[in-house]
Amino acid sequence: MKKTATILASLVIATGLAAPALAASDKADPISPPGGWSFQGILGAHYDREAAQRGFQVYKEVCASCHGLNQVAFRTLEDIGFTEEEVKAIAADYFVPGDPDEFGDPTERPAIPADIKPDPYPNEEAAAFANNGAIPPDLSLIVKARAGGADYLYSLLTGYRDPTEEELAHMAEQGLAMPDTAYFNPYKAGQVIAMAPPLMEGIVEYAEGQPEATVEQMAYDVTTFLAWTAEPKLEERKEIGFRFMVLLFILCGLLFFSYRRVAKRVMDH
Amino acid sequence: MHPSRSFEPKNGFVKWFDQQLPILTVLHGALVAYPTPKNLNYWWSFGSLAGFMLAVQIVTGIILAMHYTPHVDYAFNSVEHIMRNVNYGWLIRYVHQNGASFFFIVVYIHIFRGLYYGSYKAPRELLWMLGLVIYLLMMATAFMGYVLPWGQMSFWAATVITNLFSAVPLVGDAIVTFLWGGFSVDNPTLNRFFSLHYVLPFVIAAVAILHIWALHIPGSNNPLGIEVKGPQDQIDFHPYHTAKDLFMLSVLLIVFMGVVFYAPNYLSHADNYIPADPLVTPAHITPDWYFLPFYAILRAVPDILFIEAKLAGVIAMFAAILLLFALPWLDKSPVRSGTFRPLFKQFYWLLVIDVIVLGFAGARPAEGAWLIAGQVGTVYYFVHFLVILPLLSRIEKTRPLPESISQSVLSKQASA
Ligand code: HEM
Asked: Domain of B54?
């Protein structure tokens, strides 16, 4: 059955290669930023701390007015290099429900590092009302919740443009029109998105010594930050994984030779 | 090199214990002295590997259940809590999630091994059928596990699959309401799925014990498919198979843990990281990959006479699995191993390709070329088992079988 094994292996590989082709069409394939992502790959994958911190700034100053981040406790921001003091200060900017006061009335208190940032809207109805009926999704997991991951988010944020005549004609063919309250974005499924282009030159000012806040730079930074919120244990996973895999390969080799020795000993008998 | 065939403890306590409850004797018989044919190849390791994956799923599952909350308002967040706050929770969760896939990979190889070498034939029909019972239980368990994280795919897969039962005439809707515990997939559904998902693996473990018991009565089949003639054809399980299976286990772990550490979400659907929303239907609802061939069969069937497509699809899907219970009586060729059946061998590979094509068809929307591929694939699947196999056992001219296992092993060694 040696032939069997080769055939099976090639079938499995063919299946794996063909899988990405399963993605639905009617949207452009996402692009990667020049230089790729710091958290890709096997060795040395990490979240670029400075980019992630700038990304947090973009999130806080731009996206946070519409999008929640309800899986992320302030304290975890230390993982991307904020100091304990900085985290305390960041948290204290927000107010969260406190214990009832002596009259039994609800109170508010400044958030502490253990808290989660309050959502921008009290409920989905308010979110929809403020956004022409569309609900801005929570961004904690957005990088894992879209095919294409970080590339998709980066492409979406940098990909706004006017549709070409052809694209308009193609949409018309399918009975779609560009609504007044939505925008064209080739990377979004269906190519129409209710979010106005959130990033433009000058909307955020980075600190001294940081790169200039171009749209591409901000998109890169906020995507790095949101990749971290989606998969905060990635560095630990890949690092432990590497050591584990090295040990496994050694173990596998040893087990192979011990099997061969046992086989020789008992089969010759 | 036979270790003593019977278990003879030297330690006084062990002796006393084993006399009153001979568990150790039983284990010794199964894991040390079990006589196996000398010529088993690597494909025979996949039974042990399946047992290992079952243990992995049970251990990681129990730990997950300590931190998981089966409630529609908390389930999604409790899984994220495991991923973010529980010590090594991400590892446990990714191992369990991908472990389901690798359990199926291992069991599919195990099943296709049996299909090729005719392991389902007498005197192993019951062994084969117990295996199929395990397979059915695995599918139920995996389906319900998929629902627990309460993401978009969880919710909609649960809705689509439970809705299938509404196709049953007269009582269909009543069955669906009964399954849901209400009038839609909701908290009662999630709760019962969690309860069943916890208990079914232990049922699987019990059936696996019966499966191995039934294996030890006739003993293992082998790549030649001929009977064992005597001790010269056999070898003790330990140390030969313990060493071999441990090596194969390390190979499995390299692939499995490689995926866990470097592509833990490759096999799953991005939409399941969106919390379940009964008001938003995803563009494509797809089950996990291991159900795709059956999903394709389900959707391939059109209206047949007075049976509407939905019911016909459900019938075809269940028939595709239940059919395998009849396999020992559909393929009546006295020769077990595909090695000596030139025609069978070709149709076997056609079946493998057919199932893979069905898998691809199941992953796509049921329209256009892929719908047709799914329909052709479905027809061929049934034709293979219901027409080709019975026919082959009549007309095929099989190649001559070797005299005995030991002779074949010796001549192989001589020619090598
Ligand atoms: C929890 C899942 C399962 C476990 C733990 C398991 C375990 C085992 C073990 C340890 C063996 C002996 C080693 C070997 O021959 O590979 C075996 C043999 C066998 N199993 Fe399974 N099995 C499982 C599922 C299945 C399924 C789903 C089927 C098929 C429908 C199946 C069919 C067979 C057959 C036919 C044999 C005898 C093979 C031969 O001797 O040629 N098993 N199983």
From this structure: 37-222+236-281
